[in-house]
């Protein structure tokens, strides 16, 4: 078994407890381990004072708690930070820390090395696909950024929100993403609230139908167009699962009270910012349990697309609001370091 398969972070509390009890350790040991890792951010097993020497030796012999190496951190003028992380097998992923205010600190995590979806507006899609991340590699992104921030910024720093909007299609890594979310929301560990986690998908229909097996986190659908011709040009997945199939699958998702499906709509000049696009959104999307999040296109070198003017963006939002659709405009963060939506490619600015 390779080192990467033995990450302690890949285990949910129940899985860790099952392993430890099978080797003669008490049930409470697994909860103590979770507290050291996820509450204390302590990665020195030998210093875990309330855990027996035998348990420490077992953990050290059978699991790794090494964090990914941070190869570089880029700093945006708006406070966003982009981390390039090296995994145990030498592959690399990017993770982004996004500060919104003093109370809200968000991490945007990757779920795959590269991405197989090939959306033509997305820089990550140019990387191709290499492999899925293990659950532990997703959790380790959270821990690596937390530890770096506590060491370099503030000793009491805490991430409050997580979005699965980095590199990769989360639903193509269903089991590992599900395990990671179970670890994230466990009250005895990281204890992120379900409402503080958002999973974004480009629309992998078979897995959308399985989302009822997930912890009830926020769901975001990358829509980006209202007809199959335009969406297929932007997103090859639409050739396999068209808009009709996508919305049929979404209807099967059971939402908790007062929850909404968020539809991400990347606004691109002269592509999907027309009056007929507003009409199409009005016809497609339920006013009762939906929200539209307009994402103005983030330019990057050699992109064939352009961002609409600010006036056009505001007009688009106001027209949707007039039609009774809850609509917001996402504030782009980290554009100057290629850390904004659709800009991640394991590369850094030369600043």
TrEMBL record:
Its EC number is 2.1.1.192. One of its GO terms (biological process) is rRNA base methylation. Signal peptide: none annotated. S-adenosyl-L-methionine binds at residues 168-169, 200, 222-224, 298. Transmembrane segments: none annotated. SUPFAM superfamilies: Radical SAM enzymes (SSF102114). Binds 1 [4Fe-4S] cluster. The cluster is coordinated with 3 cysteines and an exchangeable S-adenosyl-L-methionine. The active site is at 94 (proton acceptor), 341 (s-methylcysteine intermediate). One of its GO terms (molecular function) is tRNA binding. Keywords: 4Fe-4S, Cytoplasm, Disulfide bond, Iron, Iron-sulfur, Metal-binding, Methyltransferase, rRNA processing, S-adenosyl-L-methionine, Transferase, tRNA processing. Its cofactor is [4Fe-4S] cluster. Belongs to the radical SAM superfamily. RlmN family. Specifically methylates position 2 of adenine 2503 in 23S rRNA and position 2 of adenine 37 in tRNAs. This is Probable dual-specificity RNA methyltransferase RlmN. It comes from candidate division WOR-1 bacterium RIFOXYC2_FULL_41_25.
